[in-house]
What does this fold into?
Amino acid sequence: MGFRMGIVGLPNVGKSTLFNALTRTAAAQAANFPFCTIEPNVGEVAVPDARLDRLAEIAKSKQVIPARMTFVDIAGLVKGASKGEGLGNQFLANIREVDAIAHVLRCFEDGDVTHVEGRVDPIADAETIETELMLADLESVEKRLQNLSRKVRGGDKEAVAQERLLLAARDALSEGRPARTVEVSDEDRKVWTSLQLLTLKPVLYVCNVEEESAATGNAQSARVAEMAAEQGAATVVISARIEEEISQLDAEEQAVFLEEMGLKEAGLDRLIRAGYDLLGLMTYFTAGPKEARAWTIRKGTLAPQAAGVIHGDFEKGFIRAETISYTDYDALGGEAAARDAGKLRVEGKGYEVKDGDVLHFLFNA
It folds into this structure.
């Protein structure tokens, strides 16, 4: 399954610099980590996972195929976007098409880079975008309530359920709270999600700091972290300028550069993994002489549905899954040794796949 992360932010916060670094990094990856430019502002990158390389080494795989994430560089937003100001309509349309939002916030001072509001205040910037999304949602909710009124009067059960949830959303938005703060029962979850409200999308705050603060963050990024903690959101500290430099180096040069900067890994790797976690995703693997491959599924996925990610026929004709944990596969040195040691398990339709499982599916064609 693919998933899309929209990169948003006010003008001149480093959003496009970050996206360009992502795309150059992906383009420079080996053939086993392909990059695809779908549109000028859309790119796919590999989800970094050292386990996959280890599996390929053990299985002597000819090809390594990682999980992938799609990043969308969304047009810069300005106040009034909800009313079509600037590129507002395009911005809102693009937001609707992504699964989560990476909100880039300027946490650096630079007299040569003008801030659209004439000051550096990442909290205010975050509030500007959140406000525009809430205003757009509020307008959408009001229109939907009007369109539902006749069906509700007629006693349509689906319309009544939608109205109840839309009213809950309207109450939250009117109080200045995004729709994702509304508590919804498991029974209502499907209808709630189908409303496709902009402020339902999970948010990851990306603090773009000066180069000197890339390893530790700064006072501004600390403020953002505090705000995110209150919202139950996540943050990543990145220096877009450093990432741009890293993207132009080969693997050996990158390692040296990162060490000199006091960084354990590239910020983009942390951003990709954070986005993966934000959406409640995890990875299972298939490994053999032909290829070692990472497959993306949502946490809680059962074995037949995990098989269906490979091919629909695998899910329809599912019989069982042969399962080895990554830890056992690594420690014992492969499938044969894990089988001999009794670490290969046979699981049925009710098995909930675990992160890192190495799976082999049996199915009826």
Observations:
- Confidence is low (pLDDT under 50) at residues 27-38.
- The longest strand covers residues 291-298.
- The radius of gyration is 23 Å.
- Residues 122-153 form the longest helix (32 residues).
